[in-house]
Sequence to fold (93 residues):
Amino acid sequence: MTDWCGYCRKAREYLHSLGVNLIEYDIEKDKGKREEMHKRGGKGVPLIDVEGILIKGYSPDLIKGAIEKKKVTLRHSLMSPAVCLFVLDYPSE
Fold:
């Protein structure tokens, strides 16, 4: 992983710590997901989608608030909210 997308790394680590169902897309490697990110209004990374609640950039308070809001709607379910994370990520050399 490179340091130039430190907020992507922080978002990933934070989302893992919250125990959500994380689906991650590398927009550099997947043109379709890059286009999808732009259609959702994303101009930079990370773009986080918590079941329709979009968070542009890394903001732990906004991320946690969105997840808590979705957990309320899933209260009678054992499921955690699904979270899509659009990132730029390359393995370090």
